[in-house]
TrEMBL record:
One of its GO terms (cellular component) is cytosol. This is Peroxide stress protein YaaA. One of its GO terms (biological process) is response to hydroperoxide. It comes from Corynebacterium riegelii. InterPro entries: YaaA. It holds the Pfam family H2O2_YaaD.
Length: 232
């Protein structure tokens, strides 16, 4: 089972001056083309194209030299509420092996892939081309090779590699049925951590299996087709 997380706009700085290490080599031609295109324009043009505010100019400048930038594991590069709840630094290697991240720049990453800090989002346009157009069916084809996918990506990132057979997750208030927005990422991070740590995760191959794992960890869940609703 592969749990696919959304990336974060904020990313940890630093890392080691080592080469990038990326899984899913079939995605490399698009990755390389995107990095080439980013490096071919000046900072002002890039900021305009990617809608990067002036206060984030330094992040735009990092896009110009991605191949020479410090790298760190993807699961440590991404930050924010979901990743705080995931607390990847305390996860064992076998749990991390079940985690992936959807990325506008890299398409799909495994937790231990080594990546630089960058500033490209699902809503960006590179060379006046949407990220959905850049990725086409490439990410979907990689996800389709997985035994079972738990897709926790946001809608914009799901569009970069939709997979009809994937299980999605919705967070809902148990008493009102309303979608939880403010703490959505926190609950998804907690669920991802619990699933990755579950003793029987390797045997999970359906939404029913995932619901059983979540229930065993104390989550209240409901199955709605291919969607697992987390009741909080």
């Amino acid at each position: 089972m592969l749990i696919v997380l959304p990336p974060s706009e904020t990313k940890a700085p630093g890392g080691q001056l080592d080469p990038m290490r990326l899984s899913f080599p079939e995605l490399d031609p698009i990755r390389q083309a995107l990095m080439d295109q980013l490096a071919s324009v000046d900072v002002e043009t890039m900021m305009d194209q990617l809608k990067i505010p002036a206060t984030k100019r330094a992040e735009a400048e990092e896009n110009l030299a991605l191949r020479d930038a410090p790298v760190m594991p993807a699961i440590q590069r991404y930050t924010g509420v979901l990743y705080d709840a995931l607390d990847a630094a305390t996860l064992p290697a076998d749990a991390l092996s079940h985690l992936a991240v959807g990325s506008a720049l890299f398409g799909l990453l495994l937790a231990d892939d080594h990546v630089p800090r960058y500033r490209v989002s699902a809503g960006s346009k590179v060379n006046n081309k949407t990220m959905k157009a850049w990725w086409g069916k490439a990410v979907t084809e990689q996800l389709a090779q997985q035994d079972f996918v738990v897709d926790m990506r946001s809608g914009a990132y799901q569009q970069l590699g939709p997979l009809a057979s994937a299980m999605t997750v919705r967070v809902e208030q148990a008493d009102t049925g309303k979608v939880v927005s403010h703490f959505n990422k926190q609950y998804k991070g907690e669920l991802a951590r619990s699933l990755a740590m579950a003793p029987n995760i390797a045997d999970a191959a359906s939404i029913s299996d995932v619901a059983d794992l979540a229930s065993a960890e104390g989550f209240q869940v409901r199955i709605d087709g291919q969607q697992l609703t987390l009741l909080v």
